[in-house]
Write the structure tokens for this entry.
Amino acid sequence: MRDEQIINSREMILKVFSNIDKKRFEEKDSVENAWKKITTSIKNGSKEDIGAKLFSHSSLVDVKDGILLIETDHPGFIQLFRIHEMYILRGLKKFVPQLEIRCLSFRLRGSKAVLSEIENEIKIYEKQKMENKFNCEEKTIEKIYKNEQKTEKNGRIPENMKEAFERMRKSMLTKTCQ
């Protein structure tokens, strides 16, 4: 009875790995290969191999909703990644287009930040940016509206408008029909 419970190592390994989604494993492998190829290809104007340093000081953590979370061991590397962000995004679109990565996000090693928190921060930032743009446009519209009201109250057309109308009138009168 005891012999039935004992399995050899081959069977144990097959049981463990049978639960792993092969497609997801291959996708992870292709992303890591693309990451290495892209980061190590980054060159700096100096003799220093910046791409190899970026690769060795970073690791991929997660991909969710088009955001790739990258972990680094120093804030200086985050700055370097930001400098080369467009290059990295183009490379990711080329080598792993199925992931549709449109944004890079970073965390320092040891931090517990996850993509859902980072996504919320990005959404809040984008919302604030849109609100600022909306407020700016609203002020512009109010300014134009006030100027129009002043013109209507005065019953006069601004001088620059009068001049434009006069030029149009003259050009219309001087044109001949053919």
